[in-house]
Amino acid sequence: MATMITTQSAEFASALVDGGKLVGLDVGTKTIGIAICDAGWHFAGPSETIRRTKFMADLTSLRRIIEHEHAIGLVVGLPLSMDGSDSPRTQSVRAFARNLAPLELPILLWDERWSTQAVERAMIEADVSRAKRAEKVDALAAAHILQGAIDALANLGSGS
Fold first, then answer.
1. What is the pTM of this model?
2. CATH, range 5-158
3. Is the model's pLDDT at 157 over the cut of 80?
């Protein structure tokens, strides 16, 4: 079966079984921030950041997390340009998502234009040191991306 990759929340939701954890990914050139949400899709929290190496090693790390969490879908942050168009990074993330096909999970590409800035600003306001921010920003950005997606999914279910 081909892996479904979409930017549409409703299409993604229809590919999922009811309830179950989702994994959020903030895919960078050097790291992948990872977040997990609860099975009821109420809240997303940062999990970990993995340092990227070769793709197969990255895939193995992601598979371990997905299996451990019994995840049913992936939400991958899509770094669009500020005007909403694709950028070279967007194309790279789309290719990364296509390469996740062996995981056999539905994938939602989620607009992440403001995620890292929002997380950085919140950590600065909380007086988190620069070193601690660098260590945590990717997983927190993944949580921000995943929270936006599960909020949209919850709104689908409530008819709003």
1. 0.89
2. 3.30.420.140
3. no
